[in-house]
Write a structure and sequence with these properties.
The complex is a heterodimer of chains A (92) and B (454). Chain A is α+β, with helices and mostly antiparallel strands. Chain A is 36% helix and 38% strand. In chain A, helix 1 runs antiparallel to helix 2. Classes of the chains: A alpha+beta (92), B alpha/beta (454). At the A-B interface, strand 2, strand 3, helix 2, strand 4 and helix 3 of A face helix 1, helix 3 and helix 9 of B.
């Protein structure tokens, strides 16, 4: 399962530097970004990234905890989840 | 490729609509623990459970973390103890010792409930079955995590009315021994008809003898998700309502299947079934009654409730069966009164009565569940309630169950509190007319005719 893709979601009030700080963290931890989608609805920032964590030396759970902590420092909610959950629920 | 709206929808279901995996239940066969010495039996049981279940909680935590999906309960079910203990247990006390050993094993494995303190007596009781059943009140009073169940009837065998009569008295005794905690012992005791071998839900879970050595069964939940989806088709015809429920049930069940497969892979234990269930909790927004009300009923219990529940149950199955290769357990909507705040409200204001609940059990997943009744209810009346519910199961070829709590010292209008997911319940009125002479007959109700369906 380690080679499978994962999804990062970022939700929160829009501000300068959200993407910069999260992508910097991903760069430092050798997580490859394969796709980014973002939208701003009523001042709320919604972003989704499809990433590959298999190149990172850190365990998936560590990455997930550090991203959450980074999010709370910025003031947005960040989540790292395995892509399978969305695929299994949203595809026949 | 997955798009942002799909990701947002899934995460909203989890964060705002209480979507969760209600239970990952590890079934463990204890048949290889059998001994004719009680000490050896208890040691074998502790070792087998420790060895098989040690990975369960850590693996579930990993899955929760990686998918950001809560797994509310991690549980174990075992082979019915009346079978496992038949060689070693010669007294009720011997069975209580096995219960303590199971409780200890459950605590060590960090699971919250262990099911299988059970006897299957749908046609007759062995000496061991009788000893186990008689030991249930003490076994439940002296343990924290053990769940007991007794299967007293089936469509193939009829109903064992001797066992039904006995269970009336066992439920009263269990209530008495846990009187200081609103008779909570009865919340861990269920009487069943047509009990499935692979049910992951407590209190009726046990690991049937038709199962493999160990198996992962998963129960999903999502009343809040279904309720939210129904809001979008307010006032629309039934076809649209059904379609909406089916599609949502599909997604919820897929989640269960994913978790079951992942847990199975990581633990190296085969995946058994997903139970297509809608299991409420006392939290607002996690209620079956709310779904019925969203369909257009003023309160759960209003005329139309049985039809609404039948529709809901059937659509959940239709959506779920498409989503999962292996379906089993109890599969359907649960209607436990104390665990569903909408049901609690409906019962408190008089919209929902015991008789209406009984009618609802004809079309839903299980039966009369988590219902508080006056502590003074005669045991023959409790047996009468059980007999009615078993008859519904027997004739309709479905699982039915009774988990009823005669709350000692409390009467109609009082409230019983069980804590946590077990919730609280208003004490409901019971029909005062006696069934004693009927129950006292003893013997069996024969198996029904399987033809002439009218």
């Amino acid at each position: 399962m380690s080679e499978s893709k994962s999804i990062i979601t970022v939700v929160g009030k829009d501000q300068v530097g959200i993407i910069a700080r999260i992508t910097t963290y991903l760069y430092e931890n050798n997580v490859n970004i394969e796709d980014i989608t973002q939208s701003i609805v009523a001042g709320y920032f919604n972003m989704m990234m499809i990433v590959d964590t298999s190149g990172s030396e850190k365990a998936f759970i560590t990455l997930s905890e550090e991203l959450e902590a980074l999010g709370s420092r910025i003031g947005v909610m960040v989540k790292l989840q395995r892509e399978d959950i969305f695929k299994s629920m949203q595809r026949i | 490729m997955i798009n942002i709206n799909e990701v947002i929808e899934t995460n909203n279901m989890i964060q705002k609509e209480n979507l969760d995996v209600r239970t990952v239940t590890l079934g463990i066969s204890l048949l290889d623990c059998v001994s004719d010495r009680i000490d050896t039996l208890c040691d074998n049981i502790r070792l087998k459970i420790a060895r098989t279940a040690k990975g369960l909680v850590p693996v579930c935590r990993e899955i929760e973390r990686e998918y950001a999906i809560p797994i509310v309960n991690k549980r174990v079910s075992v082979t019915p103890i009346s079978l496992v203990g038949a060689g070693a247990c010669r007294t009720e006390e011997d069975f209580v010792r096995v219960a303590r050993a199971l409780d200890e094993a459950a605590r060590e494995a960090e699971i919250n409930f262990l099911g299988g303190y059970s006897a299957l007596v749908s046609k007759g009781m062995t000496r061991a079955d009788e000893l186990l059943i008689n030991s249930i009140p003490r076994a439940l009073a002296e343990t924290e995590r053990i769940c007991a169940s007794v299967n007293v009837g089936s469509t193939k065998t009829g109903i064992n009315m001797d066992a039904v009569r006995l269970m009336g008295s066992i439920i009263r005794k269990t209530a008495h021994l846990t009187a200081d905690r609103d008779s909570i012992g009865c919340a861990r005791l269920v009487v069943l008809c047509n009990a499935p071998d692979d049910n992951p839900f407590m209190a009726g879970a046990f690991h049937g003898v038709t199962e493999t050595d160990s198996v992962i069964n998963v129960g999903v939940s999502g009343p809040g998700v279904i309720n939210h989806a129904i809001q979008t088709v307010k006032g629309r015809p039934f076809g649209e309502l059904c379609d909406t429920i089916k599609k949502t049930a599909f997604k919820v069940t897929r989640l269960g299947q994913l978790v079951a497969q992942e847990a199975s892979r990581r633990l190296g234990i085969p995946y058994g079934i997903v139970d297509l269930s809608l299991a409420p909790t006392p939290a607002v927004g996690d209620s079956i009654a709310e779904i019925l009300e969203s369909m257009g009923l003023e309160k759960a219990g209003a005329p139309g409730t049985t039809a609404a529940l039948a529709l809901l149950n059937d659509q959940v199955k239709k959506g779920g069966i498409m989503a999962s290769s292996y379906v089993g357990g109890l599969s359907g909507a649960f209607i436990p009164v104390s665990e569903d705040h909408g049901m609690i409200d409906a019962a408190s204001c008089g919209a929902l009565t015991l008789e209406k609940l009984e009618a609802m059990t004809c079309v839903c997943s299980v039966g009369l569940d988590m219902i508080a009744i006056p502590g003074s209810t005669p045991q023959s009346t409790i047996s009468g309630i059980i007999a009615d519910e078993m008859a519904i199961g027997m004739i309709n070829q479905k699982t039915t169950a009774v988990r009823i709590i005669p709350v000692e010292g409390k009467s109609v209008g009082d409230r019983a509190s069980f804590g946590g997911l077990l919730g609280y319940a208003p004490v409901m009125a019971v029909n005062p007319w006696s069934s004693r002479d009927f129950i006292d007959r003893g013997g069996r109700i024969p198996a029904p005719v399987h033809s002439f369906k009218n």
